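Quick sanity check, 2-C-methyl-D-erythritol 4-phosphate cytidylyltransferase:
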Amino acid sequence: MSRYAIIVGAGKGERMGSELPKQFLELKGLPVLMHTINRFHESAASDIILVLNVHFHSYWEKLCKEYNFNVPHLLVKGGVTRFDSVRKGLKEVTRKGTVAVHDAVRPLVSAGLILKCFEKAEELGNAVPAVPCRESLRKGGADSSQSLSRDDYFLVQTPQCFNSALLKRAYRQEFRNEFTDDASVVEKSGEPIHLVEGETSNIKITYPDDLKIAEALL
């Protein structure tokens, strides 16, 4: 059974406040995206599919030459939404197996977590890493709110792993605004989602401070 990794980085990264999308920013001597790909190359993935905005394909190829980055991967044109991008990546999954979908800007994911997600998905059909919410929660607005039990909530991460046939079937659905990740797409198709313990260090680089935190963790 094959193990695929679809790494999604087709966004523009506007919240970073940089003209350059965050997946291309340098982190400890390498672009963020190269760290991410290396994590999967060094772990359990046999095929790496990289989904990028088509306008940055030539820039990425230039970076690969500049940094002498030779990890094998297939470059795919991204879609308008993350949903579209994953769907395009799935077209390149040609053998039966397990698919991990991962955010390009989560460069600190460990090989251990990747392997754990693959193995659990091969056992149960899917595996989604999550960490317990550690902050107090309230629901509502400035004028009225109510306390929520943080014990009932988890922060979801990637890689989210799925049986390839199950994931392809789920992505035949029409897009909905509630599809914020792959687990929400698969859940809507009628499949229960299985959580595995994530890692607090598996941060998503979204804002400038996140890059500083990632540097410290590395």
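Posting the structure with no commentary besides this: The first strand starts at residue 2 and ends at 9.
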